[in-house]
Structures are given as C-alpha cells and as structure tokens.
Amino acid sequence: MIRRRTLLTTALAATAAIGLAACSDDGEGTGGASDGGGASDGGGGAPALSGVTVSEDLGAEPTVEFTAPLQISEADAEVIVPGDGAAIAEGDTIIWRHLYIDASSGETLQSWWQGAPAGGVQVNAEAVGPAAFEVFTSMTVGSRFAMAGWQQDQSGQARSLIQVADVDRVVEPLRAEGTAGKPSGTFPKVTLGDDGAPALDGAPSGDAPTKTTREELIVGAGDTTVAGDYLTMHYTGWKWSDGSQFDSSWDRSAPFSFVQGQGQVITGWDENLLDLAVGSQVMLVVPAEEAYKDQGELAGETLVFVIDVLDAAHLTD
Q1: Domains in the chain: how many in total?
Q2: Weakest-pLDDT range from 110-119, 121-130, 292-301
Q3: Residue of 2, 72, 94, 266 marked active site
Q4: Considering 35, 168, 229, 247, which one is annotated as catalytic?
Q5: Active site includes 246?
Q6: For residue 67, what is the domain's CATH number?
Q7: Is 7 domain-assigned?
Q8: pLDDT value at position 178?
Q9: The domain containing residue 110 runs over which residues?
Q10: 151-178 pLDDT tens trace
Q11: Catalytic site residue 266?
Q12: Prediction pTM value
C-alpha cells in the first residue's frame, strides 16, 4: 500500500508474497491480485480451491464455503462464472468488487458488499506473476473468479487468503477527456504529448503556496469522486524548487490506484481529489507540510502534480 510519507509508486499489484490483499491486523486492506495457479501440495495433489465452493449468483455477494483451516501450499485460481463482456488483455487496468476470507479461520476480512472499497489491478505479468496473468487474460469483463494464496499483514505475518471478485470493467480511456478548464495562469503551463502525458513549459517561479492549491485543466463529465472511492489515475510530479520531474505513472505505462481518504497517500492528495468529475485533469501544488514534510528524498519540497482522474469505483453502486 502507499503510505502518506512514501514516494508515489505503482501499487495496483500485490506488494508481498503473491498477495491477495494488503491486510492489516484489523482486516482492512487494499485490493491486490494473487498469483494464481498450481496445486495446493506442490504438485500431484488437489488444487487449493478444490475444497472451496463459491456461489454463482452475480447479483449477490458471493458465498464461500470450505472447511477451515484450508491448507494452501501453492497458489491456485479459477474462473467461477465466465462474464459476457469484452476480453481482458495484457496491459488492461481492471476494476473489481471483491471479498477476502481468512483461509485459516473462514472469517470474512473485507467485502465490497459489506461496505469495503472496490479494488483492481493492471494486467501485467511482471506485476501480478505469470500464473495470475494467465488467469486474468483468459477472462472477460463480468467474470467471477477465485484465488487462493498468501499476503503479509502489517506486522509481517503471512496470511493464507481466499479472494473472490467480480470484474466490473476495464478502465478506459487512459487519459483525461472533457472541456478546457480555466487555470489562473499563476503556475507553469501544461503541455500534453500525443499519448496525453503532461509536461511543464518551465520551472515554477515566485513564492510557493502554503496550502495545497488545485486548478482544473480539463473538466471531465463522469461520476464525481467521493470519499472511499477506489481512484485510478495517471500522474506526473515535479519539484517546485527547480522544476525537475521526480515521478510519473506515464513513464511506467501503469495507472496508479488508491482508496481515497484512508491515509494511503499524502495529505494533499487525500484531501484535494474529492468532488472531481472522472475524466478531469487537475494540477495540485502541494506544500511540504501536506506532502512528505521532513521525510525522505522529497523532504521540505513543495510539489507540483498533474493528475488525470481515470476512474472512481464507489463504495456502493
């Protein structure tokens, strides 16, 4: 997960082991993907999910039945209900509704149907692992899938988990689209590459703002972002001090996602990406106190971000 004082990096995929969810001790977590496939005993035996029954009613929260504790010696994955939407391809960013169950106890740790955030992942073999990549690229939008695997909680303990998720959509387009905004002209002008990637036409000048300042460069026409959304975006960040770029999701060809309002990102993001239409592009100028304060490589820096809001998956429909 992305913490408020760490550098922004791509975090759609699991961050530890084959991770299903970055679960904390209280069962909260963010959506990641498991590395599915393989037999539960290292080969030759029954797959981990062979003893798990998952309901097929896509209109209701999945019910998951198994005898706990479920032993998972190797990751496993399967499609429960094929969807009737478009095929999922390499590089797609998919959004899903999901639940996570502790395989050792049978306890539901997190469920979108019970008020937890949605989740998603970019379908990239390097990010999710070759087995999960094979499963994802065999699915279509609307599919329900199950995966069994492990993830480390915040204490470093590995948890065995079952993930069941319904794939809701593929995020597209992967750039802001809408009408031109009316920036103040106080900050550097933004130019866009052919793919939509932003650049500044010069270094910032003058005194930096003391509170995060937001300007809409493109006004989208999609749903409005609210607290608790699983937001997906492209972004680039520059230092106010010299105009140098320090990070960009565009350079990785990987959109970035996080849950709004849960402290997973810097304060300037958490508090200033609300009430925006999906499809919008905004500039955020974030002072150090609302960015990384005195921590890390960007300690003391005011930061300039240009952010394309690509998707907002709500807590409920």
Answers
A1: 2
A2: 121-130
A3: 266
A4: 247
A5: yes
A6: 3.10.50.40
A7: no
A8: 97
A9: 48-170
A10: 877 677 788 999 999 999 999 999 999 9
A11: yes
A12: 0.86
3-state secondary structure at position 297: coil
- Tens of pLDDT along 6-31? 222 222 223 222 333 333 334 444 44
Question: Residue written as tokens 């036409």?
Answer: 201
Q: Are residues 299 and 194 in the same domain?
A: yes
The partner residues of 313 in beta bridges, in order of sequence, read 230
Amino acid at 236: T
User: Considering 145, 187, 235, 258, which one is annotated as catalytic?
Assistant: 235
Query: Known catalytic residue: 230?
Result: no
Q: Choose one of 150, 170, 190: the last residue of a domain.
A: 170
Determine contact, residues 75/18, Cβ cutoff 8 Å: yes
**Given 66, 133, 230, 292, which residue is catalytic?**
292
| Distance of alpha carbon 256 from alpha carbon 163, whole angstroms | 21
Are the C-beta atoms of 55 and 124 separated by less than 8 Å? no
235 is catalytic: yes
Residue 192 in any domain: the answer is yes
Higher-scoring residue by pLDDT: 167, 35: 167
Active-site annotation holds for 133 = no
Q: Which two tokens mark 19? A: 């991770």
Question: d(Cα 100, Cα 108) in Å, to the nearest integer?
Answer: 6
> In this predicted model, what pLDDT tens digit does every residue of 175-222 receive, in sequence order?
999 999 999 999 999 999 999 999 999 999 999 999 999 999 999 999
- Report yes or no: 281 and 217 within 8 Å, Cβ to Cβ: yes
Question: For this structure, is 307 an active site residue?
Answer: no
Query: Tokens for 291?
Result: 């960015």
Q: Which amino acid is at 112?
A: W
152 and 230 share one domain: no
- Between CA 148 and CA 271 the distance in angstroms is 35
User: Within this chain, do residues 106 and 209 fall inside the same structural domain, yes or no?
Assistant: no
From the candidates 136, 187, 305, 307, which is the catalytic residue? 305
